[in-house]
Specification:
This protein is α/β, with parallel strands linked by helices. It has helices spanning 6-31, 44-47, 50-62, 99-115, 118-134, 136-147, 151-156, 160-178, 218-231, 246-261, 281-286, 299-308, 332-344, 364-380, 382-389, 395-408, 446-449, 465-479, 491-503, 544-547, and strands at residues 74-78, 94-97, 183-190, 193-205, 208-212, 236-239, 269-271, 290-296, 313-317, 323-326, 356-359, 414-418, 437-441, 457-462, 484-487, 508-510, 550-558. The two termini are 27 Å apart.
């Protein structure tokens, strides 16, 4: 008998090495408990003194240079990223490839990947996640300087927290594929005749997966989509936002390295770079070879995809109007601080940021004052403000806040409780920053607050709590909501409110205060997006997000 080849041995060793990690992830999604194989703090006490400097040096060495990805069909090199912190162009150019060439290359690479045993694909995805974690200090600077996330948020939220979501998809892929036996013996009597059949079941991938990434949080949604498709046997084309390419270029680089190292064609993962003037997403979406589309971004384009994409799998996460209903509180300052922190985190450029705060009349004035005071306390400490608020990713968010401010000028029934203004970043004096605009409005101003404003603007609406829940859940049904929040000391009120949120498909956080951010979504435990309202048509963290990326084809024949 011939000895296994070195490549076969390396693949088997990888399966064995990553089996414990995958098993732990499966256990975590079953228990829904707190677990992660990663550390989400950049502290040198955890990582040692060298890794932060090495990661920063790798980022800085890339500035002003072409990003090397040996991909097919290169047309030219493009790049338009500008750091929200320095105001300077990164000067990195990326290969812009002919979409047809990327698709052709994926087709060439696909048969070997499709034929690979599922356990090997799972192990390779887990290995990619660990390699990306090893590169996370470089990734943190990349994310920071294209999105405006603070360094700590870029390190944690776009590193380990995003990788956890990716590994969560690997766990669900393992569950889905392992649930299908490869063969079975079927025995039954028909009209007195014994029938014995051998049946075989093949897992057949759907086709090329396209992952369309957003500008503000490119990795957090991309990793689960990438690994869900790859693990189930599908090639993937990553389509980054033209203003936030570098994180996805790093991801593509690391994935391609792992594929090559273990004997697979790296063109199973490619990067489709485009420009604002010449977008490529729709051309890829329309291509018949692309059978899976994962989209994160604007409700406008997401809605267009939901209306027009047929005969393919489509998973969307867009945005919505996230609300807070304050009925009663045990600790006014603690509740106000929780909402203020969530509204300030990454300058409200997150899909979980609260935008409308409904307050019952007895608390309205005191809660609004406490909310403003808590935001002011964050802003008063420049170091704290920098760590929480970061910078504004794009001019679109500045315009969103400016448009709201202009719309309320001299408008009856509106009071400006807090003006939006830049804060002075202690490290980057040219950083594009903006603190929250806080407005007190009455319920006649629904034309203002009943649509998403992607930036730091907060509406405080005085309204009876039951009416507020009715309106908040109506907004979730019509405009979408990813995260809703409620504060009450009255269990009867909570009990009659929660069914309304469930019917609206709105995930609800109740009475959360303290150190944990109320808009933190924990991988393996929290389901992110429900697919039941316009904020997205799927959940990023369940079996349905993965299982339909492959289909089952059977064959049967009389048993020997």
């Amino acid at each position: 008998m011939n000895a296994p080849s070195p490549l076969a041995e390396a693949r088997r060793a990888l399966i064995d090495r990553r089996a414990e990690l995958i098993a732990a992830a499966i256990e975590a999604v079953s228990a829904r408990a707190a677990w992660s194989p990663f550390q989400d703090s950049p502290s040198t006490r955890i990582h040692g003194p060298d890794k932060p400097a090495i990661g920063k040096a790798a980022f800085e060495a890339q500035l002003g240079r072409p990003f090397v990805l040996d991909q097919p069909g290169v047309i030219n090199h493009v790049g338009a990223e500008v750091s929200p912190f320095t105001g300077d162009a990164l000067g990195i150019v990326y290969p812009r490839c002919d979409p047809e060439a990327l698709i052709d290359a994926a087709h060439v690479a696909w048969p070997a990947w499709c034929a690979a045993e599922p356990e090997l694909r799972l192990a390779l995805c887990a290995e990619m996640a660990m390699r990306l974690y090893d590169a996370n200090f470089e990734m943190a600077h990349a994310v920071m300087h294209v999105t405006g996330q603070s360094y700590t948020q870029a390190f944690s939220g776009s590193g380990p927290n995003a990788l956890d979501r990716g590994l969560e998809a690997v766990a669900y892929a393992a569950k889905a594929m392992r649930d299908v036996p490869r063969d079975a013996r079927y025995e039954r009597r028909f009209a007195g005749e014994a029938v014995r059949l051998d049946k075989n079941y093949a897992l057949v991938p759907r086709g090329i997966g396209l992952v369309v990434c957003c500008a503000s949080f490119p990795t957090w949604n991309a990793y689960p989509a990438l690994f869900a498709s790859l693990a189930t046997g599908n090639p993937v084309i990553l389509k980054p936002h033209p203003l936030a390419v570098l994180p996805m270029a790093i991801a593509a680089r690391e994935c391609r390295r792992v594929l090559s190292e273990f004997g697979f064609d790296p063109d199973l993962v490619t990067l489709a770079v485009d420009t604002l003037a010449e977008p490529a997403a729709q051309r890829l979406v329309d291509h018949p070879a692309v059978q899976i589309v994962d989209f994160t971004g604007s409700p406008r384009y997401g809605g267009h995809l939901e209306r027009t994409v047929t005969g393919k799998l489509l998973f969307t996460e867009t945005a919505g109007v996230n609300t807070v209903v304050v009925h009663s509180v045990a600790d006014l300052d603690a509740a106000a601080r929780a909402v203020a922190r969530a509204a300030s985190l990454f300058s409200a450029q997150m899909c979980t940021s609260p935008q409308v705060v409904y307050v019952a009349p007895p608390l309205a004035e005191s809660f609004a004052a406490a909310l403003v005071a808590q935001i002011d306390a964050i802003v008063a400490d420049p170091t704290q403000a920098a760590g929480i608020m970061g910078a504004i990713q794009g001019e679109v968010s500045l315009r969103a806040v400016g448009d709201v401010r202009a719309a309320v000028e001299h408008r009856p029934g509106v009071r400006v409780l807090r003006e939006a203004a830049p804060y002075a970043h202690p490290q980057f004096p040219r950083a594009r920053t903006l603190t929250p605009l806080v407005l007190a409005v009455d319920d006649s101003a629904t034309d203002l607050y009943a649509e998403e404003h992607f930036g730091p603007v907060l509406f405080v609406v005085t309204m009876d709590a039951d009416a507020a829940v009715a309106e908040a859940t109506q907004l979730a049904r019509t405009q979408g909501s990813i995260s809703s929040y409620l504060y009450s000391t009255d269990e009867d009120f909570i009990d009659r409110s929660t069914p309304l949120y469930e019917q609206a498909g709105a995930n609800l956080t109740i009475n959360l205060t303290g150190a944990m951010w109320i808009n933190f979504a924990a991988a393996y435990s929290d389901y992110h997006v429900t697919g039941l309202n316009p904020a997205g048509n799927a959940c990023l963290a369940d079996l349905a997000f993965v299982a339909s990326r492959f289909r089952i084809v059977q064959r049967r024949r009389p048993a020997a």
